[in-house]
């Protein structure tokens, strides 16, 4: 089963859906997930003020209630001068894809989500992203160094490839995240647009796939 997930690592509802997709993979272990990066707030320059923090915390409460995903609220509240720019972390997932095309990018996406929402890591900082990415991408037989990740993340070609993902998202007509598709017979079919629990996702896939 091939799924296509359009998401942004710093989108809280994408984080909630990732919990459900983790449950879906437990049911269907041979599922592969292609990641298209959405660029929710790519290139944002405004500093996140108290009102912006409270707005996000309201979303976090709803996501936690729906999905059970854990959140470190103090980590957000204590940030000073934080610019909520999602381009760097989207580009980090793209860098992982470039470095190891056959890697499980869903695992990398989840590592960045956990880093931001639970560990309160600064996922706008390139070196922090390189540390998380190298750890998520490395295997015992095929390690990826922080330096290798960092150098790939900085490349103009990587910046351009992330921008191409953002453009593809717009071409697909997606304005809200997350969006999940099933690839079938060379075409992609919308499974859910927005957050949905695993049973709803499973049922929608079964309908599209024609399972009985």
UniProtKB/TrEMBL annotation:
Superkingdom as given in the UniProt entry: Bacteria
GO terms of molecular function: oxidoreductase activity
PANTHER family to which the protein is assigned, alphabetical: DSBA FAMILY PROTEIN, GLUTATHIONE S-TRANSFERASE KAPPA
Gene3D superfamilies membership: Glutaredoxin, putative protein disulfide isomerase domain
Name of this protein: DsbA family protein
Residues covered by the DSBA-like thioredoxin domain: 4-206
Organism, scientific name: Rhizobium grahamii
InterPro entries: DSBA-like_thioredoxin_dom (IPR001853), Thioredoxin-like_sf (IPR036249)
């Amino acid at each position: 089963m091939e799924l296509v997930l359009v998401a942004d690592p710093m989108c809280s509802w994408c984080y909630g859906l990732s919990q459900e997709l983790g449950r879906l993979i437990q049911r269907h272990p041979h599922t592969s997930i292609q990641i298209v990066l959405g660029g929710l707030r790519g290139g944002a320059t405004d500093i996140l003020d108290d009102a912006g923090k409270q707005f996000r915390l309201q979303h976090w409460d709803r996501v936690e209630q729906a999905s059970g995903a854990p959140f470190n609220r103090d980590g957000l509240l204590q940030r000073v001068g934080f610019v909520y720019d999602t381009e760097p972390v989207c580009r980090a997932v793209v860098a992982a894809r470039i470095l190891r095309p056959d890697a499980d990018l869903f695992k990398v996406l989840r590592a960045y989500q956990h880093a931001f929402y639970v560990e309160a890591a600064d996922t706008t900082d390139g070196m922090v992203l390189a540390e998380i990415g190298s750890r998520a991408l490395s295997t015992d037989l095929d390690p990826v160094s922080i330096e290798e990740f960092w150098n790939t993340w900085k490349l103009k070609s990587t910046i351009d490839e992330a921008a191409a993902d953002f453009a593809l998202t717009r071409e697909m007509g997606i304005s809200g995240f997350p969006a999940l598709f099933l690839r079938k017979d060379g075409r992609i079919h919308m499974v859910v647009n927005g957050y949905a629990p695993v049973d709803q996702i499973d049922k929608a896939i079964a309908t599209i796939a024609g399972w009985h």
